């Protein structure tokens, strides 16, 4: 083995020494991405990757800067914005993205976005009407 091969192997061991951890958190993130609309909790997520829930919590926070719960909430809020823009009612949106309470959904949405879901939806609908008027004027 040449000097360069030895150096590459040494560097590879340093850089990828935590590959198992990375695969664990990527797997959990992927699971949340695909199942954000169901009731997820730390116990379930830890069983999916066969890791202690406390270890999972530390790893996820280390690599993503958020707890799995915070990430889940952000994902649900992101998806709820898409639903609201598409004209789905606030109540339907709330349950479609996995929230169990309209009150907690509205509170979290307002905290994260700065507007209530209803205000957000009205604003988006008025924007789309204005955009469509401008497009109509451009083609005339």
UniProtKB/TrEMBL annotation:
It comes from the Bacteria. This is Helix-turn-helix domain-containing protein. Keywords: DNA-binding, Transcription, Transcription regulation. The lineage of its organism: Bacteria, Pseudomonadati, Bacteroidota, Flavobacteriia, Flavobacteriales. InterPro entries: Homeodomain-like_sf, HTH_AraC, HTH_AraC-typ_CS. Residues 26-123 form the HTH araC/xylS-type domain. SMART domains: HTH_ARAC. Transmembrane segments: none annotated.
């Amino acid at each position: 083995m040449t000097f360069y091969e030895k150096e590459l192997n040494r560097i590879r061991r340093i850089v990828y020494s935590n590959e198992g951890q990375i695969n664990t958190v990527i797997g959990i993130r992927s699971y949340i991405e695909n199942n954000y609309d169901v009731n997820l909790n730390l116990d379930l997520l830890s069983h999916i990757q066969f890791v202690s829930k406390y270890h999972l919590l530390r790893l996820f926070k280390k690599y993503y800067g958020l707890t799995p719960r915070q990430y889940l909430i952000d994902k649900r809020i992101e998806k709820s914005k898409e639903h609201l823009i598409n004209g789905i009612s606030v109540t339907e949106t709330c349950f479609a993205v996995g929230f169990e309470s309209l009150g907690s959904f509205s509170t979290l949405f307002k905290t994260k976005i700065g507007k209530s879901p209803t205000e957000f939806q009205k604003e988006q609908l008025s924007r789309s009407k204005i955009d469509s008027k401008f497009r109509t004027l451009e083609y005339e």
